[in-house]
Write a structure and sequence with these properties.
five-stranded parallel sheet, alpha/beta, 323 residues, 25% helix, disordered C terminus
Length: 323
Amino acid sequence: MDAPDRVFISYRRDDAAGYAGRLEEALERRLGRGSVFRDVLDIAPGADFSEAIRQRLAGAQTVLVLIGPRWAGGDGTGPRRIDDAQDFVRLEVQMALDGGARVIPVLLPGARMPGEAELPDPLKPLARRNALSLSDTNWDADIARLTENIGIAARRPRWPLAAAAVVLAAIAAAAAWQWRGGGAPPAGAASASAPVAVDESARFAGLWQGSVRYAWGDRYDERFEFKRHAGELTGSATFLGYPRAITQLRVDGRNLHFETHSIESVDSSSKELTHAYAAELRGQPPDEVLAFRLLISGGHSSNPPIEFEARRVPQAASAPASR
């Protein structure tokens, strides 16, 4: 759905993907479904990425620039990606600053606001914009403050009450017909015995954690968080301990398939890694496990598949991570 008052979230995937997904979900709960644009979920398959970004920026009222510790896209020893005139993050911010949208820098944990001297010329005005911060410990309060500064009124749903009235009326009609001994309910009436569709993705919702030993010897406790959003399963997964947005997610019974992405830099060469996960849900609550097989491709070297298991994190333990 296109709308002139959308909030556009600009972020670098290997810097703030996990926070971008959480922020989109939190804002849409307050501003209404379809009020936030984020490239991973909102660009149709096969669409021209750069042209879609231009169109969305042209219609955005507010642009949130998520700045994490690696927003500039450099490791301190090589060239920074933000200095490349073709860098997508740089182009997004530059177009936002040149347009009429309100641009708000949003600082993530571990990040600081860059000064003018640290920014390429087209992005120097960003340093003069007042920044807001997001933190895990004060997530709800920070989201409320950010929502107030966005300046977009929450949308009222147009149809849910009417739809609920129709459903209730149908159920009542079916019950009355059966009470009178009328046999099968009339057309359009709901049947209490009608089978209910099972949401296969619901069984994966929640936070999972597993210890992963990578081919080069390092071991990390990785986390996988799955949530229902706009009728679909979405989420984030850590890779080397850093949260990344999940893409290409598919549920097939008790099997789960998805991808995340990161950037691998060697000397002056950078390549995008694709982390392809396949998981099978085994066991029954409360002893369920996700048996994963991970294949990493696209980098400077090949890696063998990695197998590991993740277990569900109890709700009390997972609460701080979901804020």
